């Protein structure tokens, strides 16, 4: 089959820039597409935090010192191309210090401009490359204006006549809602009528909603989330629109890049292990407890959490349950993350109450994330909602048993442990409440106490396969469907 041309635009791409799972997906999917021989060109901002490996990046001479008008403002930028680790693929980083040299990736007053600019810069680069991708693949609200730009600002350019657009919703809770007065700044003042009428009446514009209106095809990151967001409150106000576009919405579960998340080769682990020999897992646990200054626990289970600490993640369900569990039995808890003050306060005070058994590491650490996945026995993800979730899939491969709320991608990737049949890979609770979580964690701990059952459960978990190797075909099918190219 002939190769497809895919232009993927995202606000985060691992390992260059990452706050969450979007980066993992935007880093891995292109690598797998390119291994299949497709022409993938990835665009992201060159934030000041991006560390480029020496020798592995260079300026693109015909994309240097360009100017783009955003309303009244003229913005200058250049493009640096950099090798995506673990591949021969080079990504395109938009170098524009006035917009991207900030203290963090998100949260600036001019985010509307920063990401609308990224979107337009990607299109302008394609023009200068003389390249018409079969599909422009945009991700979340940041790049959701792309389909509208093609119909307005770039309508004149016949180069893109046959290009189609796919918008992937990684999280519908973030929509990019701004005062309608930003329209001139994002070069769409003459196109106000194309935005949702009721939003305009309320004085706002919604970038994600605009993408949902104009993209040729929509996808989200798990089949269950694709149902949830059109059926009820998880649609966060966009459910009606998604119902209308039901035929054009597909759910594709994210994949895992097992070249990065594999306990047999993981570069961040003191000891490697496999399903056949779990002694390395025990060694990792011992080393991690020591590293974090916790009491050794040859027999006691270690509970792990690695997460953005946002309300989506549902950690309030732990408020009563964890202190109780810690009081009743010997367990260890390691938490890595930062965010909402309530959550940080809870984990901080839990550490204060159980200093030898609980460690709250406030911050972001790729290395520690890998070590927690490898060392823990049980992984807690009580998310209120979870479009896909990657950590539960990483946990499975590391033989770390997930305890999760049955929602979104958690429902699609974890199977309930059944003691009778010895099947299943984790513990799921149905209703988002403390009773459900208490039951699921209690069941996990009771199973842990039975060596044979636990060994079986861990073996089941480690045999799960969510590789990109498989999932990439789902995207290729969608791209072909969109482009009308079955050849
Ligand atoms: P989300 O995108 O909602 O944050 P996911 O489970 O899809 O949730 O992806 C989270 C990604 O971010 C995983 O790769 C996880 O390991 C990583 N991550 C989250 N918080 C941290 C942290 N504090 N330190 C290191 N990695 C983190
Ligand atoms: C979002 C979601 C998460 C998903 C990730 C990558 O941040 O919260 O569930 O796995 O995007 O698609």
β-sheet strand percentage: 15-25%
Domain count: the total is: 2
- Helices and strands: which structural class? alpha/beta
List unreliable stretches of 5+ residues. none
What's the count of strands?
18
Query: Would you state the CATH class of the largest domain?
Result: Alpha Beta
Shape: globular
Rg calculated over all Cα atoms: 23 Å
How far the N terminus sits from the C terminus, by CA atoms, comes to 5 Å
Helix fraction by DSSP (H/I, runs of at least 4): 25-40%
Mean pLDDT: 97
In this entry the ligands are: adenosine-5'-diphosphate, alpha-D-glucopyranose
Largest sheet: 10 strands, mixed
| Annotated CATH topology of the largest domain | Rossmann fold
Q: How would you describe what is shown here?
A:
With about 475 residues, this protein is α/β, with parallel strands linked by helices. It has two domains: about 5-255 and about 470-485, Glycogen Phosphorylase B (Rossmann fold, 3-Layer(aba) Sandwich), CATH 3.40.50.2000; about 280-460, Glycogen Phosphorylase B (Rossmann fold, 3-Layer(aba) Sandwich). Helix content is about 35%, strand content about 20%. The chain has 17 helices and 18 strands. Strands 1, 2, 3, 4, 5, 6, 7, 8, 11 and 12 form a ten-stranded mixed beta sheet that branches. Helix 1 (about 20-35) crosses helix 17 (about 470-485). The model has no long low-confidence stretch (mean pLDDT about 95). Bound molecules: adenosine-5'-diphosphate and alpha-D-glucopyranose.
């Amino acid at each position: 089959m002939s190769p497809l041309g895919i232009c993927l635009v995202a606000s985060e791409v691992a390992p260059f820039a990452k706050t969450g799972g979007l980066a993992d997906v935007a880093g891995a999917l292109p690598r797998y597409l390119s291994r299949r021989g497709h022409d993938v060109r990835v665009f992201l901002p060159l934030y000041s935090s991006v560390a480029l490996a020496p020798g592995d990046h260079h300026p693109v001479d015909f994309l240097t010192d360009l100017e783009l008008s955003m309303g009244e403002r003229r913005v200058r930028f250049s493009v640096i191309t950099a090798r995506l680790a673990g591949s021969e693929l080079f990504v395109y980083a938009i170098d524009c210090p006035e917009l991207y040299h900030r203290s963090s990736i998100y949260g600036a007053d001019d985010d509307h401009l920063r990401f609308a600019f990224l979107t337009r810069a990607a299109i302008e680069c394609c023009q200068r490359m003389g390249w018409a991708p079969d599909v422009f693949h945009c991700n979340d609200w940041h790049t959701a204006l792309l389909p509208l730009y093609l119909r307005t600002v770039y309508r004149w350019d016949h180069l893109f006549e046959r290009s189609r657009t796919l918008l992937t919703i990684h999280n519908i809770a973030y929509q990019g809602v701004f005062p309608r007065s930003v329209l001139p700044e994002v070069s769409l003042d003459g196109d106000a009528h194309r935005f949702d009428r009721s939003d305009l009446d309320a004085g706002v514009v919604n970038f994600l909603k605009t993408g949902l209106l104009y993209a040729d095809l929509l996808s989200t990151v798990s089949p269950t989330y694709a149902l949830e967001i059109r059926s009820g409150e998880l649609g966060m106000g966009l459910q009606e629109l998604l119902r209308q576009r039901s035929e054009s919405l597909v759910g594709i579960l994210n994949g895992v890049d097992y070249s990065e998340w594999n306990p047999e080769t993981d570069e961040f682990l003191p000891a490697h292990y496999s399903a056949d020999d779990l002694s390395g897992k025990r060694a990792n646990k011992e080393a991690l407890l020591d590293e974090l200054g916790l009491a050794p626990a040859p027999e006691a289970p270690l509970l792990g959490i690695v997460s953005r600490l946002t309300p989506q993640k549902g950690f309030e369900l732990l408020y009563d349950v964890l202190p109780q569990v810690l009081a009743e039995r010997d367990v260890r808890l390691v938490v890595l993350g930062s965010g909402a003050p309530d959550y940080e306060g809870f984990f901080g005070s839990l550490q204060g109450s159980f200093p030898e058994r609980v460690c709250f590491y406030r911050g972001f650490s790729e290395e520690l994330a890998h070590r927690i996945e490898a060392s823990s026995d049980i992984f807690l993800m009580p998310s209120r909602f979870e479009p896909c979730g990657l950590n539960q899939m990483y946990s499975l491969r590391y033989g770390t048993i997930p305890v999760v709320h049955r929602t979104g991608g958690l429902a699609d990737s974890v199977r309930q442990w059944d003691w009778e049949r010895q099947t299943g890979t984790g513990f799921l609770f149905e209703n988002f409440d403390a009773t459900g979580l208490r039951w699921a964690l209690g069941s996990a701990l009771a199973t842990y106490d039975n060596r044979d059952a636990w060994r079986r459960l861990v073996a089941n978990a480690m045999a799960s396969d969510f590789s990109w190797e498989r999932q990439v075909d789902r995207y290729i099918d969608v791209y072909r469907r969109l482009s009308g190219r079955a050849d």
